[in-house]
Each structure stands twice: as structure tokens, then as C-alpha cells.
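Q: Convert this sequence to C-alpha cells.
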Amino acid sequence: MTSDGDNPDVPIHCPECDTQTRVPLPEVAGAIDRHNETQHDGTECARVDPDLADQLADLVAEDMGLLD
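A:
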């Protein structure tokens, strides 16, 4: 999928399928839910790329002053 230009694309990774795709930020939760429901009977396999999730967590923690 491609972004409409206003929203960044977020990488979604599924280690069970060994696949990765990118979806616009507002569609992340729905895309993950649909993939897990249709491909894995609802088991939570697909997720935001773990490296990106770690980077975002670090940025949020820094912004909140939790790393001081």
C-alpha cells in the first residue's frame, strides 16, 4: 500500500509468514488485525516492525523525561 502523502507508512512484519509490508499510520491497527484474523485465526503474529517499535518507545521515553 502507498501513503496519501499526509501520513507516514509504517512497516508491518509477520515472522510466521516471513512477510513485511508498509501501510499508512492510520491503517496500522486494522491491517494488523485483518492479517492476524485471516492468516492466523486471530493469533497475534503480525506487528509493527520491532526495530521501529523500539525506536518509537525510546523517543517517547526521552520526550517524557523517563531516561533522565
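The radius of gyration is 14 Å.
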